[in-house]
Design goal:
The structure is a single chain. The chain is an alpha/beta fold and 185 residues long. It has helices spanning 38-51, 68-78, 116-122, 138-149; strands spanning 6-11, 14-24, 27-31, 59-63, 81-85, 97-102, 109-114, 126-134, 153-163, 173-178, 181-182. The chain has a single domain (38-176), classed as 3-Layer(aba) Sandwich (Rossmann fold). The strands form three sheets. A five-stranded parallel sheet has the order 5-4-8-9-10, sandwiched between helices. Helix 1 packs across helix 2. The longest helix has 14 residues, at 38-51. The chain is globular.
């Protein structure tokens, strides 16, 4: 049973109570943190793989860090490689591509980087973007921009959950949806 400060989800038969977190005065979101939750990650990966079964793609692409376990598990189930966009530039990354996004949880801008070796690997490929929760779409937009620069084609976007009232979420392949709680409504 859910506590008043939590919201219960059921993802592929796995139930979790998500803590509600205030992101700005009067606005709360449910926080899904899949890091370390092997049972949920593997169930979600199997369910998302089923939903992606009719889509022809070469690579999974995700942003650092919380969705990495999902990309890994989905890659294992689908027998596909995955690429991780980093949030900091490392010297070994060579001629990396970059784009800026805005994090809903921190409210701060963040930059995503595609390593030069991954850039060469995905050029001309068909990719599926993977995220844990798609909320504002900012991370998606950042990944899309980098994929365009890398000359890769985004053929699908997938997440465990979508969040909020965005009309565009009908294009996202997801396993569930989270509301946003606004005081007074």
């Amino acid at each position: 049973m859910s506590h008043p400060d939590t919201y219960q989800i059921d993802i592929a038969g796995i139930k979790r109570d998500l803590r509600l977190f205030e992101i700005k005065p009067g606005v709360r979101i449910a926080i899904l943190n899949i890091l370390g939750d092997t049972e949920l990650v593997e169930a979600a990966a199997r369910a998302l793989n089923d939903k992606l079964s009719g889509i022809d793609y070469d690579y999974l692409v995700t942003a650092e860090a919380k969705s990495i376990p999902l990309a890994h598990a989905l890659g294992a189930v689908a027998n596909k490689r995955y690429v991780v966009l980093r949030k900091s530039l490392k010297p070994y990354m060579g001629d990396a591509l970059k784009s800026e996004t805005l994090s809903i949880t921190t409210g701060e801008p963040q930059t995503l980087y595609l390593d030069e070796k991954d850039r060469d690997r995905i050029k001309g490929s068909r990719v599926v973007i993977v995220d844990d929760v798609i909320s504002t779409g900012s991370t998606l937009q950042g990944i899309r921009l980098i994929m365009e620069k890398a000359q890769a084609t985004v053929v699908a976007e997938t997440a465990i959950l979508t969040e909020g009232d965005r009309a565009t979420w009908h294009n996202i392949i997801a396993l569930g949806h989270l509301p946003v709680w606004v005081d007074g409504r």
